[in-house]
Amino acid sequence: xxxxxxxxxxxxxxxxxxxxxxxxxxxxxxxxxxxxxxxxxxxxxxxxxxxxxxxxxxxxxxxxxxxxxxxxxxxxxxxxxxxxxxxxxxxxxxxxxxxxxxxxxxxxxxxxxxxxxxxxxxxxxxxxxxxxxxxxxxxxxxxxxxxxxxxxxxxxxxxxxxxxxxxxxxxxxxxxxxxxxxxxxxxxxxxxxxxxxxxxxxxxxxxxxxxxxxxxxxxxxxxxxxxxxxxxxxxxxxxxxxxxxxxxxxxxxxxxxxxxxxxxxxxxxxxxxxxxxxxxxxxxxxxxxxxxxxxxxxxxxxxxxxxxxxxxxxxxxxxxxxxxxxxxxxxxxxxxxxxxxxxxxxxxxxxxxxxxxxxxxxxxxxxxxxxxxxxxxxxxxxxxxxxxxxxxxxxxxxxxxxxxxxxxxxxxxxxxxxxxxxxxxxxxxxxxxxxxxxxxxxxx
Length: 444
Prior knowledge:
The protein is an alpha+beta fold. It is built from 15 helices and 16 strands.
């Protein structure tokens, strides 16, 4: 029972019982101020008043008990709804193609959400993710360890691209959550081909069977020779090259694409060398290639990579040539590439949003920047933040400049955002303008 409610109802009972007591005394008062009559009626009046008070107090107590039971039931329902919602969120995170690690002040250790097998070998415990040097390249592991230390001590968020020991690209993002921190790990969207990584690293393949399985996945023309230097396998790209050169494909007799005289000298050099041999080739109908061949157990294997001769300079789309001009501007400017990574910004942009330039130089994703600004209370108070962010990120599909509606920030500032396409390779250029002073002047 709540004390305030009890006091209110108790006062109501007293107020109700007092008239009853006075009503019982009316006959005695009507008879005049006879002392003996009044003295004789007093016990009866007090008794009736006490009975009335008790009945009303009992009714109030029953009402308070019922209200308390309903309040407990409502609280229990709310707790059950919150638990169900938390279970739903955890189920969604567990099924996502990423892993989230949380360190909170109410937990004894880190908490893991998601599929750890996306990052480390299947069957290993999620705790193995914290052994960064076990699955990350040494340089990437050191970078991630330092970033986590800065996050836990100073609260600076980060968004990094790391390299795993198996050659994969891993995205790592860290941010502050309440009284703790969180780390999200996920494979990058664009990954190098596993087969190409193995072959380009000139790794020795154990046997012809393994060579065939790996080279079959390779997008470049690739082949396998037996111990007698005879071609015994060619992948789909090699078959296509053979047909482009006007030769017929036969599985029983894989055609050569190298002239006999050149091939003999190449094989002789390969037999005397322990390292891969590179042979320059030029086909009139297919272009220039480099043939890379290396020894395997029981023969050799190789592939042909196109030789690109760059005769036309590639245009600079990084905006590095105007970085000095951008930085000198007093107007905040930020440039993102097609992958939504920050590639250029000026000091005015970092000052406007109170962002650490060192963190901005790590090329964070724009979504990470927006999420950080929201967590620090520097974005408009939108009821549906995710819908607002999705609408803002449609800037990457623009074909002409667009001026957004003014951003009314919680700190009282008003900012307008102009978005324009960054160039033929995609991306967006943002120009921010703080309208607070001008609007204040107009109001005056």
